[in-house]
Structures are given as structure tokens and as C-alpha cells.
Write a structure and sequence with these properties.
By secondary structure, the protein is an alpha+beta fold. It has one domain: Glutamine Phosphoribosylpyrophosphate, subunit 1, domain 1. Helix content is 32%, strand content 25%. Strands 1, 2, 3, 4, 5, 6, 7, 12 and 13 form a nine-stranded mixed β-sheet that branches. Strand 6 and strand 7 form a beta hairpin. The longest helix is centred in the N-terminal third of the chain and has 23 residues. The chain starts with a strand and ends with a strand. About 3% of the residues have low confidence.
Length: 310
């Protein structure tokens, strides 16, 4: 069986002219490290679920990406993180919303999936569950990034929120989310997604990432999908599950189903972003309707790629 893993580190207005060669190299290195971490598990006969969790942990630990350590600041100057994981073999799923001091939210989501009778835990309750399960926490300083802080300072006294803009231009749009999808040697597939959400977000806003069927979905019969983009529109489109439905009920292949959702259905409602996907036959696709998407793929056929722009 062919095994493969695909990852993303966010999508949006990511232009080469806004990127320094050093920063581009660091992003590419970060993507490659996450690919390698997940692929090593697949290569050694591990499960797709363990592989996507490992890849996402690597991205959460990288301060460049808006998840885990690099999460953006909320209106109150805090970090509220969301994550989800789903196993395509049995539809087991776990997710957390609005957690604060959890070092790797994806590990907490996996623990919800494995050690509770629930699918989604939120806020204080999720934090309490993390403590009861001895999930690693970190103080606020661990999540501090000068780049993210400066973003927040530029808009903290306004009613605006930003998806993950760069410092050059407040209206630049980058949708900061990380995710992974994988197919293992047994033909089982899985998806995982993690995010720090929007800069200056208010009222405990939750996007598509932790919502099963919206930003994250996996089913061996169809596909495993992880999304990144303007979460509200991905929720309205039930984007990840829509790909699965097009495959299951309309008989579409992975690429065509993803293409219809990303470049037709989302575009029709001004939903900007992208998604990565795999199916149980080992096909993969990485599609986006924005200027760029941090992405990468590694397969047992010897193919590996990390890319940023269109």
C-alpha cells in the first residue's frame, strides 16, 4: 500500500514580493520538518492518526505558524486555540475550542478522542480536562511572538479582527491554520487541524478548524480533509464534509470533489482559502483559491515537495 502525508500551514495573500529569502527558507524548512516527522511514523508502519498528530505538533511548536506556540492574540491579549483530529477507519474524532495554556492543542484533541465519551470540549472545561489527563501546559510567555504582538497592537483598539495579516499591510489576508492528512500502509486515513484563530478576535469566536465536517473530516470510504481559510465561510459550506459527500453520493474522485468545493462552491460565497486531502487509495490533492498556501507532501513513491505560492 502506498503511504503519504500532506500538510498545510495556512493560506491567503501570500506573495513572493512580501517575503524575504530568509523567511521563505524558514517556512520551507518548517514544512519539511513537519512532513518528515509525520512520514517517519508512516514509514515505520505507524497509523495515519499518529502521523497527522505528529506533523501538526511539529507545526504547533514552530513560532512561524498560527497554532500552538505561534498563536495570535485575542482582543483581551490572550491566546485561544482550537484543534481537531479524526480517524477515517472508525470515524472517531476529538476536538477542543478556546484552550489557553495547552502547549499542543492537537494532543489534547487526540486525548478527547481516545479518553472521553465526547467529541468537542471547550474553554475552561477543556483546560480542566487537559490537567486531569496530564497534558503538557505552558505559561503565557511561551506563546509570545513579537510579530503576533505587533499585529495585535496595530488593531487592538478597533472593532476590526484580522485573519493573519503581515506587518506590511493591515489588510493583507493570511489565514493561519495548520493541518495534516495521511494514508497509512493499511489504507486507513486521518486528518488533523490546529489554529490560533484570528488576531483581535472577540467573544470566544470559534472557526471551522475544530468543527468536524467543516474544517476537519476523515472517512475511509471517501477522504481525509484539513482546511484553512476564512472559517465562517468554511462553516457555512460544511466544506470538508462536502468533499466527502461529492465522492460518496456523486461518485467524484478526490481531486474533482475538492476542486468543486474550493474553486466553485466556496468562491460563490466569497470563501477564501484552501484544503489538503487524501483518499484510501493513496491519491492526494492540495487546492486553494487564494494567492498562496503553505503546503507540502511526501509519499512512499519518493516524491516530496514543500511549496508556498501558486
Amino acid at each position: 500500500m502506498k503511504c503519504r502525508i500532506a500538510i498545510h500551514g495556512g493560506a491567503g495573500t501570500i506573495l513572493k514580493q512580501d517575503m524575504t529569502p530568509d523567511l521563505e527558507r524558514l517556512y520551507t524548512q518548517g514544512l519539511q520538518q513537519a512532513l518528515d516527522k509525520g512520514y517517519t511514523i508512516l514509514e515505520n508502519g505507524g497509523t495515519s492518526t499518529d502521523a497527522v498528530i505528529a506533523a501538526v505538533v511539529e507545526l504547533e511548536n514552530n513560532i512561524l505558524f498560527n497554532a500552538g506556540r505561534g498563536s495570535v492574540f485575542t482582543r483581551k491579549g490572550l491566546h485561544e486555540m482550537d484543534a481537531a483530529v479524526m480517524n477515517g477507519a472508525d470515524l472517531a474524532a476529538g476536538a477542543v475550542c478556546g484552550v489557553h495554556n495547552v502547549r499542543n492543542p492537537i494532543e489534547l484533541a487526540a486525548t478527547v478522542m481516545r479518553n472521553s465519551d465526547h467529541v468537542i470540549l471547550s474553554g475552561e472545561g477543556a483546560d480542566d480536562f487537559a490537567l486531569s489527563q496530564h497534558i503538557q501546559t505552558a505559561p503565557g510567555e511561551y506563546f509570545f511572538s513579537q510579530f503576533r504582538y505587533d499585529q495585535w497592537q496595530a488593531m487592538r483598539n478597533s472593532d476590526e479582527y484580522a485573519l493573519d495579516h503581515s506587518t506590511q499591510n493591515i489588510i493583507d489576508k493570511k489565514f493561519g491554520t495548520v493541518g495534516a492528512v495521511a494514508c497509512d500502509v493499511n489504507g486507513n486515513i486521518a486528518a488533523a487541524t490546529s489554529t490560533g484563530g484570528m488576531t483581535n478576535k472577540n467573544f470566544g469566536r470559534i472557526g471551522d478548524s475544530p468543527l468536524i465536517g467543516c474544517g476537519t473530516y476523515a472517512n475511509n470510504k471517501t477522504c481525509a480533509i484539513s482546511c484553512t481559510g476564512h472559517g465562517e465561510l468554511f462553516i457555512k459550506a460544511v466544506a470538508a464534509y462536502d468533499v466527502s459527500c461529492l465522492m460518496e453520493y456523486a461518485g467524484m474522485n478526490l481531486y474533482d470533489a475538492m476542486n468543486k468545493v474550493v474553486n466553485e462552491k466556496l468562491v460563490a460565497i466569497n470563501g477564501e482559502g484552501g484544503m489538503i486531502g487524501v483518499d484510501a487509495q493513496g491519491n492526494f490533492a492540495m487546492l486553494f483559491n487564494s494567492e498562496g498556501m503553505y503546503r507540502g507532501v511526501k509519499t512512499s513513491d519518493g516524491f516530496t515537495q514543500a511549496a508556498i505560492y501558486k
